[in-house]
Design brief:
- The chain contains ten helices and twelve strands.
- The chain is globular, with a radius of gyration of 16 Å.
- The protein has a single domain, classed as Aldolase class I (TIM Barrel, Alpha-Beta Barrel).
- By secondary structure, it is α/β, with parallel strands linked by helices.
Length: 235
Amino acid sequence: MIYPAIDIRDGKCVRLTQGDFQQEKVYFQKPAEVAKMWEAKGGKFLHIVDLDGALEGKSKNLPVIQEIVRAVNIPIQVGGGIRSLEAIENLINIGVSRVIVGTKALQDREMVKKAVETYGDKIVVAIDAKKGYVAIDGWTKASDVSALDFAVEMETIGVKTIIYTDIAKDGMLEGPNLEAMEELKNQVNMDIIASGGVSSLEDLNKLVEIGMAGAIVGKALYENRIQLEEVKVGL
């Protein structure tokens, strides 16, 4: 599954390089219009990130996300600043199909467990890795927990899907970290969605070969390196 990424900051569709808020490029003023565009080009599932939320720890772009839900007929998954069961419930109530928990999953395993018990496979955990360790708070801080150990722990809790991002690769258009993703795939029996660095159809084919369940594609779509119409879902 290919997930076109829509990153929202100050209500606009932007892309960052390596998660750096100083390296921002605004692509569109209205994220809902972008969502409709990706749906029209054959997108089957959208990946939305509330960048303000990721940095500040609470959802800042809920009205924009609600606008996207209303604008398209395909499912969306949302991450960024989701730190409570209430925040998860709010998103699911407005029609979000899957909610992505990142920082809070590392800080509060019990909350993730409760979320999974309540919402099942609607809960996705994002593992953002910096040199093999989990990064938190909008990628601004590194933890001392290894990404592999954390993935195993999330599987034990009952999480069915994880999104794995290598921060060093994100927005660089240099290809994903296949080695780290393959290692992760060998450690856990979850669906793994690859994120960061996807720059070509060849990258997508490699991700299929190593058994990734999907790939989030951002800058490569916005910079026309990959045409969504050319990508067959499931390849």
